[in-house]
Design goal:
By secondary structure, this protein is an alpha+beta fold. The chain is 47% helix and 16% strand. It has 2 domains: 183 residues; 180 residues, Glucose Permease (Domain IIA). A hairpin with a 2-residue loop joins strand 7 and strand 8. Helix 3 runs antiparallel to helix 4. The longest helix has 66 residues.
Length: 380
Amino acid sequence: MIRHIVLLCSYLLAATPLAAQSDPASEARAAMALVSDAAIQLDAAEGARNRVKALTETIQAFETGLGAMRTGLREVAIREAQLSARLQTRDTEVAQLLAVLQSIGTTGTPTALLHPQGPTGTARAGMLLAELTPALNQRADQLRQDLEDVQTLQMLQTDAANRLSDGLRQLQEARAALNQAMANRTDLPSRFTADPVRTAILIASTETLDGFASGLSEIVSEENLSVETPLSIEAEAGSLPLPVQGLILRRSGEADAAGVVRPGVLIATRPRAIVTTPVAATIRYSGPLLDFGNVMILEPQSDTLFVLAGMDVIYGEAGQVLASGTPVGLMGGPEGSLSGELSTDGDDAGTERPETLYMEVRKNNIPQNPEDWFKIGKDG
């Protein structure tokens, strides 16, 4: 009997805890705090003097907070699964140990405690059990803590899922408010008035983005010299923020599935993600173009163009001058559908970012590598 106890104790104590890792519960709570702050910003945006700017910052705050919350929830789910699995593997051994200890406590036969090697073996086994008792207590405390952690993480998942749902609804409200605010906006300065007839002719005669960009400079009329042109951004090259939060799917010069190589980058975004101008710029073109969908071409300086293609909704008209961070559009995706946005599966692989924004940089009509202009990492 003592031999069985020693073997069981040794087996239980041999199990080591999981490797040290960051606390997913703390990360999830921090993400929920970001979403709560964004909700406060949404309330404040209602009375903001510059409502467009306030709503833009609110939407970006929601996107950041909700993205962090998805990541936190995913880490919480992984940790909860690990702890549950560890507890399940210990069930059999703990049950056997308890059965042995209970049999010791209820048996009335002294010979049950005798060791096969006689009194000396029995004494040694007793001493070993005495030494193992504190360690067993520590192991029991660890198992108890794991169980409490599992219960806490399960409660946190439920709470965070509700917060995530509420946050997504508030984000949709902010997007709708932004659409209305942009429709009512009349205070944007204009550098020129585009000729719609000549623009239409250019589109009809253009077969490539390269040709269209080259022809843009020929269709400008009524230049407004009272509006200051954008300053040089050469000093900011390499540090400009991406126009949308997302993952880089394809870099400059990489072939797509059809083998087509383009000079721009392809960014995977979540549905309805907001797109903003990374720097003060003039809108050179705004509208559908070829097979690129809705296209926004921005001119941050006289010889440079930023091409943004693939948006569902676009804001602004050709000739308007935009401040840095001004919204220029929203990505596609089902408005009002939360099922996809609530998911936390496959986020790092981009499977929950089904929309794509194509971005190209051109200087003197020559395509540039966007990585020389923008901060492009794993997650923009």
